[in-house]
Amino acid sequence: MELTTELTTTSVLLLGFVLGLHHAIEADHLAAVSAIVSEKKNIFTASIVGGLWGVGHTLSLFVVGLLVIFLKLQISESVESKLEGVVGVMLVLLGLNAIYKLLRSDKVHSHEHSHDGLTHTHPHTHEANEDENASHHRLSPRSVLVGMIHGLAGSAALMLMIVPLIPSAFVALLYIVVFGVGSIAGMMAMSLLIGLPFHFTAARHSLLNAGIRVAAGLFSLALGSSIIYEHFIAA
Questions:
Q1: Residues near 205 by Cβ (< 8 Å), separated by ≥ 6?
Q2: Do the Cβ atoms of 211 and 38 come closer than 8 Å?
Q3: What is the CA radius of gyration of the chain?
Q4: How far from 174 is each of 10, 69, 97, 101, 117, CA to CA, in Å?
Q5: Is 189 helix (H, G, I), strand (E, B) or coil?
Q6: Residue/partner pairs of 165-173 with CB below 8 Å, 24 or more apart
Q7: What is the C-alpha separation between 152 and 6, in angstroms, rounded?
Q8: Position 69 pLDDT exceeds 70
Q9: What is the reported pLDDT for 131?
Q10: What is the rounded average pLDDT of the residues 219-230?
Q11: Quick one: DSSP state of residue 167?
């Protein structure tokens, strides 16, 4: 009997990790992270953005999970729909911000470098008010906040469909943590992949880099507008 219980617990936790990994590739998650990562030129920083999103996402899920497990809280469909609408508003703001930051960039200029006796130049842009030697490695709590909003929206309903079915409160909370670890790992991997084109085009292909950044912003803006219409206007 103990072996069966152990296998069942292990299976549930493994399922949670796999679902967490899969959860990272949902369109609204990718749109949000793409809009943020579009501002980064370092792939390590890009992956950290995804990790911070996952941390915020897990924090929200854990808090809601506590309420569901111990207070038997149930999230109504109307509340869930409004939370999804808030995600749409957030995506619109992220998309507009990504495009705004690109438009306020200074004009493209060239830097000259010497390697092995050879001198060459490449085009480069700096954000307005950005110091010449400032890096693009700075991180902000924004990714955590974005992840928390996602965690409060439809993603919570996805995960909490399984949590009430787990008889042990400890295992249920552990499931949430494992699900969160999966989502963190998945989003870090996706953010790294998303960051690759921004990284490789930032220095020598400014026009292409700008085009990709616009595309990321428009993707977030368009998807956010669609979600707002679905949950606030058409509902």
A1: none
A2: no
A3: 21
A4: 11, 12, 36, 40, 59
A5: helix
A6: 166/12, 168/9, 169/69, 169/70, 171/9, 171/12, 171/13, 172/65, 172/69, 173/62, 173/65, 173/66, 173/69
A7: 31
A8: yes
A9: 40
A10: 97
A11: S
